[in-house]
Design brief:
Blueprint: E1 4-8, H1 12-23, E2 27-32, H2 35-40, E3 47-50, H3 56-61, E4 69-72, H4 78-90, E5 95-99, H5 103-111, E6 116-118, H6 120-133, E7 137-142, E8 147-153, H7 163-166, H8 168-172, E9 175-181, E10 184-187, E11 200-206, H9 207-220
Parallel strand pairs: 1-2, 1-4, 2-3, 4-5, 5-6
Antiparallel strand pairs: 7-8, 8-11, 9-10, 9-11
Bound molecules: adenosine-5'-triphosphate (ATP).
Amino acid sequence: MKKEIAVIGLGRFGGSIVHELDAMDVDVLVIDKDENRVNEYQDYSAEGIIGDSTDEAMLKNIGIDNYDNVIVAIGDNIQASILTTLILKDLGVKKVTAKAQTSHHGRVLEKIGADLVIHPERDMGRRVAHRLVSSSVVEYLEVNHNHSIIEFSASKKFESKRILDLELREKYGISIIAIKRDHDIIVSPDPDAKIIEGDILILIGTDRQLGIFEDRMEKLK
Ligand code: ATP
């Protein structure tokens, strides 16, 4: 099913969203004040508009309110990012996703009604930090400012151990949500279930607790 999405700002971040959406066969409207950028994405978008997104009349004229999802991928120009987000919400766009450059920028975006605020640089930095501490962390997802979910690859050391034996809650204060095994997912696994080498354990906890666990597991390797 085709979904209509608009991306405002074709820097590296906005541009990669457009490429990915195009690969997923989603129709994308792209908007940028820089003509060269709009031309660059001609082959990957359904429509391109050269214009300033802080121009409310322009956004209204192109019928931006018909789009369910609009992504504001303007980063450096914080004023333009905030004003664009405000206008989009005023015009009734259902879901506005905005990229924040700093935590203050993010807080302002939330206050003015952005439905989703993303911090790509900060999140990528955190992801890299978790992977640096433990090579077994294959994925990282932020839940809130101090809680995360990690995907942890179980090494040989875990083979045949019961979940219960790991004492995740007692020792680290973290919980196991699910286990990915081959192409299956075992949700809320039984504490008596045995782990197999190569299982991906999906764990939730505070960043600090997860960090202690990751560090400990790395040292046990
Ligand atoms: P990235 O970090 O994603 O690479 P960048 O640093 O290249 O971004 P930004 O300043 O974040 O650049 O801007 C991203 C894009 O947004 C640029 O192509 C810029 O022309 C566009 N842009 C900035 N302000 C506006 C605006 N008011 N209206 C439309 N497009 C804008």
